[in-house]
Amino acid sequence: MALSLLTPNSLTKIPLTKLRFVPSLSPPPPPPPRAASVSFRRLSIMSSSNGIKVGAAQMTSTNDLDANFNTCSRLVQEAAAEGVKLLCFPETFSFVGMKAGESLQIAEPLDGPTMRRYCSLARDSNIWLSLGGFQEKGPDDAHLYNTHVLVDNYGNIKNIYRKIHLFDVDVPGNMTYKESDFTTAGTDIVAEDSPIGRLGLTVCYDLRFPELYQQLRFQHNAQILLVPSAFTKVTGEAHWEILLRARAIETQCYVIAAAQAGKHNEKRESYGDSLIIDPWGKILARLPDRLSTGIAIADIDLSIVDAVRTRMPISEHKRLESCQKISSLSSL
């Protein structure tokens, strides 16, 4: 059996082997009752014989640094055993505070003990890690940075992205949250080369600002967009999958979206549903339910990126900048 993108006669035929697929156009099944112990589940899809395996982790972080690290360590070991070369963790993977101010209290510089621990984990497991949303010590005692840290398989920090768009919202029927009260926004757009491809780094609420992803694709040549997140249940149900697939389609990039899932404490709950999406907007991998701790695994094949972009060359068709220049001249 083969999957064809665009039309039956176009693009590369992709063999679907060992397929266990949850259709992207149907909502995920209702989650089973959660066991007291953490269960690890995964969905693996072989999208191409030329692909490189990547994983999107799903977890429920708490305010226990050690417990969160132990969960991450187990997921890394599982991913490495499956041949995954890049494992992506969600926003706030290492810590989710229960009380106001807790995140500031545990914030550390990037050379602090917590990040060194995760760098060692990457080195010991010979795997790249996307650590999406680390509480990095900020410019003053009242602020931190929400920092996406990319670590290579030697345990070196290859690049960092500090979240630009801060989550200052009043979610109807859910929560009021003002991230800017304790977080300083970043200013730099970041893309980095890796053995998997050129990665564009973002964090969670960035997903609602397509111009960031447009710049990552058209100005920074990204091939794979990383979207570590901790979406609320309300916003996740409404927009999570739709926004992720839109970003993939409009940039013709793979999207890897690792998600926090379930109840972190009495006050905070995340939507979950970690996804890996191809450049045509098709979901390649997701867990059997959106709340389990585990890994969604799929193959990244950059020839698919090239094929989609060749068949539909939107980079050659972009006209907006020219139209803006013409409009400016006509108004003189």
UniProtKB/TrEMBL annotation:
Keywords: Hydrolase
Pfam families: CN_hydrolase
GO molecular function: hydrolase activity, acting on carbon-nitrogen (but not peptide) bonds, in linear amides
Keyword Hydrolase: yes
Domain CN hydrolase intervals: 52-302
Domain of life: Eukaryota
Protein name, per record: CN hydrolase domain-containing protein
Source organism per UniProt: Asparagus officinalis
